[in-house]
Amino acid sequence: MSVARLDQHRKRDGSHETADRDDPAVAKPPDSAPERDARRGLGERRRADKHSAAWRVGVQRRRIMLYDDLVRLNDLDPNQEAERDRLLKLLSAADKAANAPVGLRKWWWGTEIERAWACLREVEERSVDLLEPPDLHTTATDASTRGSRHLPDRDPRLGHLKRLLEGVDPEVGPSGQQIPALRSSTTQVLRRVHAVIDRANQEARYLRNRIILASTIGVIVGAFLVYLQSVITEPLVFSESLTGRDPAWQHLFAVMTLGALGALLIAIPKMTQTPADFGPFNLPLQQSILKIVVGPLTAVAGFAILSDEPLNISLPDWPSVALFAIAFGAGQEVVTQYVDRRAAKVLTSATPSDSRESTQGRRHADQPAPVDR
Description:
mainly alpha; 15 helices; elongated
């Protein structure tokens, strides 16, 4: 056979192979959900993800842990196999939520965060019914520990689970009637713990949004004061002898800047504080921003009080003005202390006060990471 005819055969065979690959009838069947999740769980090289916030990493880490627990289950009957497939679909939904783009509206309402963690917690609760007795005893013990950290000691679900665990031999594990009772009690405690954590996160999100609204209003009020001073020739909070020939709005802006500096000095410790058991909403950061925004307003208010009756105090020079402006800006702590108390209550609401001392410093692995700002 000539070289030309060999080339024709090769081209014809290659065209047939290409057609076979493109033909849906002979195409390879798509990978199953467990196989796709396995590749992701084992760290297959994926398309570079633009969304790499800390809370997304926390969701992925938890999803991989739950997937590993599911694939290790053996000797499942057909009904249990079907249930495991449904749980794997929930893990896939959590993966989609963790990789979905988050716009301003979703960020404001926490849509993707709550959807991802709702799927993961549903998987954790329903997978209890698939566990073998030895694994069931371990999971029940862990649920009891988590319940002690997030639920009051008088909680009936937690008390029932503890009584069941007391009757189980750790060396043998649950048997007989203990198994269904332990499954049900473990699931109920996990649901109650998850409800407490979700409610605390929702309250933190609501408070974060209110703090952002208050900060925005503060910025608008400050900008309006500077604009008002720019159109009014008479100084609002200073005497004409102090302002001299310079525009009064420049002096007002300088005082507000110094007030923000004083507030920043007070807010720095707050910005470095992160609770031991933190959720996806970083309230200390928002609290610090609010303090910096309120500082200029308290500085202006302080000078207005000094220059008005009955005090009628006039500062002689700008060094004195700067000192008082910084002091008045730091005085925003009097205004924002209510927000600080409310935030501290929200951040610790997931751990009851009667068990907080015994659990201080321990970190709950189920908590999502702080949200991106």
